[in-house]
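User: What would this chain look like folded?
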Amino acid sequence: MFRAPLTLFRVLAIAEAISWTVLIAALIARAVAGLDVAVTVGGALHGFVFLSYGATAILVALNQRWPVGIALIAVISAVIPYATIPAEIWLHRTGRLRGGWRLAQTEDPRDRRPLDRMLRFFLRRPWVLALLIAGAVIALYAVLLVVGPPGGRH
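Assistant: Here's the prediction, encoded as structure tokens.
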């Protein structure tokens, strides 16, 4: 399904934007109807998708060898409601999402770096990579649940 960085990045960028809609609708439901549980559910969903998008942006940034500034734009776009969509469009139009996963070493000297070797190792084992990323997202999500929601508990 995600045979190219573009596909994975696009799916998560759209999912992140949808999760903003769910969160905003939940906030409205709480304000209008007093449904606090809506924010609990909507916030949890948005938080999980937000972290998943961030992990995806980092993975794609490493694969595509984006400069740190471009990677930061991709990750930070999740903080602004719906900004992942224009970010994905811009990255696509500027060719930053072009190409496939870097599964094999090339003549590029950067391919000999430990980070690139490790990236190729995991990209050739997508189920292992998916489980590691999911585990990291779940662990971070759990820590953030313990810390509490942004703005504190009400």
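The first helix runs from residue 5 to 33. If you want, I can go into more detail on any region.
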